[in-house]
Amino acid sequence: MLVGAEVVLGLFLSYIFYRSLCAIIGHYRIVNILKKFPGPKSHWLLGNLHQLASPKEFLKSYHSFSLKFPRKFLLWYGPLTPVLSVSHPETIRAVIKAKTIKDGPAYQYFIAYRFLNEWVGPGLLTENGKRWSRNRRLITPAFHFDVLKPYVHIYNEALDILTEKWSNPDRLHKPLDTFYDASLCTLDVITRCAFSVEFDCQRENVKHPYINAVRTITKLVTERPFNIFYHSDWIYSITSAGRKFYSNVQLTHEFTENVIRKRQGELSSSHDDGSKMKKHLDFLDVLLKATYENGEGLSLLEIRNEVDTFLFAGHDTSSSALSSTLYCIARYTEHQDKIRSEVDKILACKEEIEWKDLPELKHTSLCIKEAMRLYTTVPIIERTLERDVEIDGKILAAGSQIAIAGFMLHRNPDVWDDPEKYDPLRFLPENCGSRHPYAYIPFSAGSRNCIGQNFAINFLKVAVAKLVYRYYFTVDMKNNLTFTAPLVLKLHGHDIYIKERNN
Ligand code: HEM
Description:
Blueprint lengths: L1 H33 L14 H4 L2 H14 L3 E5 L5 E5 L2 H9 L2 E2 L11 H8 L8 H11 L5 H4 L2 H16 L2 H4 L5 H18 L5 H4 L4 H15 L9 H6 L1 H31 L12 H7 L10 H32 L1 H14 L15 H13 L5 E6 L3 E3 L2 E3 L4 E5 H4 L19 H4 L20 H18 E6 L5 E3 L5 E3 L2 E6 L3
Parallel strand pairs: 2-7
Antiparallel strand pairs: 1-2, 3-4, 4-7, 5-6, 8-11, 9-10
Helix pairs in contact: 8-10, 8-21, 10-16, 12-14, 14-16, 16-17, 16-18, 16-21, 17-18, 17-21
The structure holds protoporphyrin IX containing FE.
Protoporphyrin IX containing FE (HEM) binds next to helix 16 and helix 21.
Organism: Trichoplax adhaerens (Trichoplax reptans)
Cofactor: heme
């Protein structure tokens, strides 16, 4: 009996030894290949973390590295984790076409998605493999044009509330916090489109516990990567930030589950698809109707994860893109005037921008695209190679970490003429013909591109058009423009003012 136990223990230890040896050899192979790539000087222990370790310095340092190494360079996140940053369309194409996952070792510094798991679970943004592809197929109909069309009315209504707020005489002559206001406006829109609940958060600010919780979680998740002690879930859970995070996550879960259960009840009692009860289908209706091949629907937990994912992936991104565009047109007013003249024609004898008007907002669209190039909303996304892949003539080992640096790609002087210049006309069709298909990827590219991009672009067009129709925007450059990242870009160092138009 004892001999049997010894054999089992021996086998177990040999197995552990074998697995550890494989991991060490695998890691050695990854490092050995990656260390041949050029990169900024790194500290033996910290790697490049000390240059990247504050929200303010992160993009500035990153960008200065990429000016030295415009195609790709190696960063060290600590002594053991090399990450290859890529910022050339050809190199990015190779990574996006390769088999990759959105995951990495726990010690990897900027894979902030793992900090999201507690909230959004394995939703579309964070899931990998077969489960991701099945869910992506099931969820894609939620972004079909027919579903998106009625949302244009919701965008208009949310913008009317924003202008009602901004036109308050107390606010008119003060600098605006465009990111904050845009963020409440997008929350208003996304909660109505996701599950048809009206929080009126723009008027109520963050008084509603659910809205307050969503905003608190988003803030904490963005801050967490920058505090090395917070990387451990256990340590985080005993800090005040961690306790705040977990209690807010619980609150949002309870809220979302209640909404889902209520809707499930309504659907089963009315035996319709929900469209008769409301003016439009929302994401939740589509998710509840989504069915696997075997006839099973998405579980309550899966639906909750997806609804929370839409909230996270959609609200700060859209507000970042909106506030960057407002900054750009406030700075380059000739483009504001052009937008105004195209909106004036549309709103000459009506109050609302309709679905059919969206293609007419041509200059508006150019201005948004260029703002999202220069101030890339999601500056960096990360991937881990699942298989060995050839990139720029070198075979990278499975397990290598790659950072797709959209912000750097969009300012790469080898790709863009005069990259620091805000020039919306570079997106005119006649100026895009020879552009590399991976030169401009604000919504990422390939099979894991942003599922919400049409939703976001439609919202941005309506928002910019309605705001420019109503106000003149100007900017006071208090300081040099700075950015914070890493998850979503935010601009600092300037004040935006508005003056009401007499339409
Ligand atoms: C201006 C606004 C937006 C920008 C710039 C943006 C950008 C991106 C980017 C870069 C990715 C790839 C992330 C990665 O691979 O790690 C992504 C993925 C995603 N986005 Fe967006 N997004 C925006 C708005 C939205 C909206 C409004 C929604 C939903 C309502 C949304 C839902 C998603 C989801 C679910 C994914 C994951 C897709 C997948 O992996 O299959 N996004 N987005």
